[in-house]
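Appendix B, record 7
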Amino acid sequence: MNKLIQDMRRNQAFTLVELMIVVTIVAILALIAIPLYSANVTAAIMSEGVAGAGTIRTALRVYQSQNGSYAGATLPSGGMGGTLLIGSTDLQGKYFAQTDYSLASVSASTYKIKAGPPSQTTKVPSTTYYQINQLGSEQGTYYTNQ
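Structure tokens (predicted):
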């Protein structure tokens, strides 16, 4: 009877090899999951930048319809000035500040909006940005066209 009880107690525990296999499987799953999670966090943060670029793009279209060209369009700085119809808080978000957006290569028929890197967070690399031009071509270090 004692031998039967000892055998039952011995069979209820995990062996060291079984525990090592479980730890290895968990480590492999973590190696796969952590980079995917980080990429999704970056994409979620940058979606705020994409929305801000969309706000600027809409204001540029209004400016072009009123003036006949994109030339002379400027973003407001410090909540004041600028020729585009953008409110002082329209570009202020959780991750992006108004100063994180810029207009480059503005001419009569072209523009390029750049959003990023976001200054209100350290969760994304400092090289992360999003760009869009008047043709709708998008470019960014986190983003790929689909």
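Remarks on this record: The longest strand covers residues 101-104. The beta strands are 101-104, 112-115, 130-133, 138-140.
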